[in-house]
Amino acid sequence: FALLDALEVLPYRSTKDQMALWDRVWLWEVSAMHHIDEVSSAEHLALSFVEYLEAIARLVALLRSRDRVAKAAAGEAEKWDYGLGAPAAPAIFCADKDGVMEPRVFAGHFGAFLRSAAVRRAVG
Predict the structure, then answer these.
(1) Helix, strand or coil, per DSSP, at residue 33
(2) Could you say which of 29, 47, 93, 98 would form a disulfide bridge with 52 (CB–CB 3.0 to 4.6 Å)?
(3) Cα 59 to the chain's mean position, in Å?
(4) 41 CB neighbour count, 10 Å cutoff
């Protein structure tokens, strides 16, 4: 979670940030491949490079989708409201389908994120 803290995204320090805490856990959990042997090694506790890239890509998509929902008109936002206060991470990608599911469009968003000042600060 240190990278998310360095990027200053998905804060979770207060009770109003419970969805951000869920998003943080979800990003890493869903990006990690399942391991058959979790007894004789600790490899299941770390992400491979490919899994890490997947987590970063999911972060980009999640941030875009959350931003779209936050800025949506009441009628549009109602489509994504399941009574949880905010759409769950696995479902929120529907909010920005064109920006997340279209490979070339998403590649542009991913590239912009990697070139952002927040990323330069976090890894610099």
Answers:
(1) coil
(2) 47
(3) 3
(4) 9
| Alpha carbon distance 109, 60 (integer Å) | 7
- Per-residue pLDDT at 14 exceeds 80: no
Give one DSSP letter per residue of 34-80, joined into a string.
P-S--SS-SGGGS--HHHHHHHHHHHHHHHHHHHHHHHS-HHHHHTT
Total residue length of the chain: 124
Please state the φ and ψ torsions of residue 108, each to the nearest 5 degrees: -65, -40
C-beta of residue 44 within 8 angstroms of C-beta of residue 31 = no
Between CA 69 and CA 23 the distance in angstroms is 15
Confidence category of residue 104, pLDDT binned at 50, 70, 90: very high
pLDDT at residue 119, as a whole number: 92
Q: What percent of the chain has pLDDT over 90?
A: 19
Contact by Cβ (8 Å): 59, 9: yes
Q: What is the phi/psi pair of residue 38, to 5°?
A: -105, 10
